[in-house]
Amino acid sequence: MTALTLSTTAAPGLRADALVIGVAKGSASSRRSLVLAPGAEAVDKAYDGRLADVLETLGASGAEGEVTKLPAPAGFKTPLVVAVGLGAESEKDAGYDGEALRRAAGVAARALSGVKKAAFALPLADAADAGAVAEGVLLGAYAFVAYKDTAAAADKTAKTKNGKTPLAEATLLGGKPRDKVFKAALERAAAVVEELNRARDLVNTPPNDLNPESFAAVAQAAAKEHGIKVQVLDEKALTKGGYGGILGVGAGSAAGPRLVKLSYTSSKAKKSLAFVGKGITYDSGGISLKPAGHNETMKCDMAGAAAVFAAVVAAARLGLEVNVTGWLALAENMPSGSATRPGDVLRMYSGKTVEVLNTDAEGRLVLADALWAASQEKPDAIIDVATLTGAMMLALGSRTFGVMANDDAFRAAVHEAAEEVGEPAWPMPLPEHLRKGMESSTADIANMGERMGGGLVAGLFLREFVGEGIAWAHLDIAGPAFNESAPFGYTPKGGTGTAVRTLVRVAELAAAGDLG
Known about the structure:
- By secondary structure, the protein is an alpha/beta fold.
- It is 34% helix and 21% strand.
- The protein contains 15 helices and 20 strands.
- The chain has helices spanning 41-46, 51-57, 98-111, 127-140, 150-154, 180-204, 212-226, 235-241, 244-250, 303-318, 363-375, 390-396, 408-421, 454-463, 500-512; strands at 3-7, 18-25, 34-36, 67-71, 80-88, 117-121, 169-173, 229-233, 258-264, 272-283, 323-333, 345-347, 353-355, 381-386, 401-405, 425-427, 445-446, 471-476, 482-483, 494-495.
- The chain is elongated, with a radius of gyration of 24 Å.
- Residues 358-365 form the Cytosol aminopeptidase domain.
- Its EC number is 3.4.11.1, 3.4.11.10.
């Protein structure tokens, strides 16, 4: 991962391969179409105060995601200046939004693949801004190369898709290297993003190399490294425990299912949280087979479990004063002679029976068992994360996840946490009239209901398996978990690590007693 440092060295005197500055779209009050952000003063001075004019001549507008490169002026020890767009100009003395800084830093880091060292002179009003820029750099410099050049990957010189190595080192100018608050901001960014990038790696790993057993092994290794207790239930233990949902989904695969429990505890904790993740390492749809064109990216159907895994490890690395338990419900959904059939009835871990009308509605079945298991420990709150429904993508698109809950105040708190860290989310309802569609003449409930509002129906199903009196939220990350289009901001193509930062922020708020 890209190395991070802070420096108070003036931009002209810092030795680096590139210097990153920020530009923005001018407002009516500025009377310019392009303005320079704080941090660009030294470059502007070297251009005799005409840097904005030069950039406009080169086509720069300050729009978000825009990159303009130009030679560094005389007297600078960096040969290249990279001007990155921040979007709208900040209001006077308001500074730039953390997400704008995060995205700009990510864009610049991607543009600087192949560069050894870059200095970032983006506007840093405080340590929070430094943390946002650090996150953006580390997220933007990510590359999944394990299957491109194994030998190179092993010696840390792996090349990205364009044949260049990721940015190796980033120095943040304007940061205070001896200030504990600034140092803590960078350390937090490094811990969270390193685990988020581990989640991205897991999502990107082909399903022939990542199955429930191997995923569990990764979790066990990380738990041992970071002092987290881990318990893995295999097929025998799941059968003995009566986990009918997880067993039913995994029945058709040669790779048996697993339920992994990760427990991070703090001696100073006053609150406890449970995170539950859907971990379908490959989803063929089972007997209700997915049509052609819908199978190719189904390795990403374990993104919820990857996010939960990463968040628990991050909480441990940050030493948060809150107890966090992660539940990874792992299975591979495949068709075979032993697979669950439409019409079968499963007895869940809670004791409820479920009529399976569609085997491609499998995520809610594994989550139901894990939610009930989490509920037995009576945490203060439960959050589940899942690439659950195509209906949520139809409702919110490919970059926003839905937030449902059994408590309006908790839903609002989770939504606000997501927006705070820059993960687009939207609160969604759980209309009671949709519950009727899941009534079954054979079992306690069916795993399908009305087609319209399918994402909400799935949320209502999950609610049935949450213990009484426990605040619960459901994050349907089907849209943003896997980016099939071109990279943007700090988001790469492929696995994105969506929801990791939201979960970590919720844990931080719980530790501080500010979750509501």
